[in-house]
Amino acid sequence: MGWSRRLQLSVSLAAILFFLPLHETVSASVREQVIPMGHSIGIQMELSGVFVTNDVLINEDDWLKAGDAINRIDKIPIATLSDFEKKMSTSKSGQMLMQIDRNGVEIDLLADLDAIKRLLPFLKDRTEGTGTLTYVDPKKGTYGALGHQIVDSSLKSPPSFKNGAIYLSEIDQIKKSTPGTPGYKISSILENEDHLGTIQKNGVYGIFGMWNDAYKKVLAKPLDIMQATELQIGGAEIFTTVKGTEVEKFSIQITHIEEEQFHFVLTDAKLLEKTGGILQGMSGSPVIQDGKFVGAVTHMFVDEPTKGAGLFLVTMRGGE
Description:
Blueprint lengths: L9 E3 L20 E4 L3 E13 L3 E2 L5 E2 L4 E5 L2 E2 L3 H10 L4 E8 L2 E8 H5 L5 E15 L4 E4 L15 E15 L7 E7 L7 E2 L2 E3 L2 E5 L12 E2 L9 E10 L2 E12 L3 E6 L2 H7 L3 E2 L5 E4 L2 E10 L2 E9 H4 L4
Parallel strand pairs: 13-21
Antiparallel strand pairs: 1-23, 2-10, 2-17, 3-6, 3-10, 3-12, 4-5, 6-7, 6-8, 8-9, 10-11, 11-16, 12-13, 12-14, 15-16, 18-19, 18-22, 19-20, 20-24, 22-23, 23-24
């Protein structure tokens, strides 16, 4: 998953994610409650077809472009990599007609079998990444995570997907952040674990879907959702995971409040020693102040990794 760089440039913190646009804040009742999470999650999405990940020369004159979808080969539908491999194994040498979709326009290309076979390392029918689970709504049976949209780094766009799921993951190692170089979590999905929830929407405010009730064991106490006007400059906490599957609380300082987002500084010595600052993979970590659920961590400042930005939960939930 790709990352941006340089001073004053904020970057998203999940493995396959993009910058957060600013939109109008969505109101929520002060009495409304959701459960703050902070668990590290693995994200898996089955794409709506077979996509090209790099620009590839397919014949003397034509290139396939990153993001192209292969719809058919010699009129045989190609919906998965298995379809592609089966077609290659049963075809004989010679010219073949490929029908691809490029930004909604269908294009026909001729290429020989060997050239098409060489495409396999540059094709994908699924995408995956990591991030942090933000909240669970026990009344609706839904969840929200990340606080910003998934953008596949090889396709350079939000992936078109058929279905997807999130899974509880375990942090195996931390690569610390340093000025100019964002750190990251090295994690793995727990074996023999069912999904935490399904992915139904990949929107500008995060990913959302139905929660799996089998995971009630990871739920904490619901908290009131804080209105943006209630947030104060001063102390707060983030809930996140930096070791194993344990969610821990760490102190931060809210430094600046805007209509649609807020800025903060990490002040917890234990967290700073462990991570050096905010990490890729922390995107979605809940922010709590005075016992109320403020929002989610969404960005860091690359050259000052102890500084970050967050999205108000009332805005995030407007994207469900």
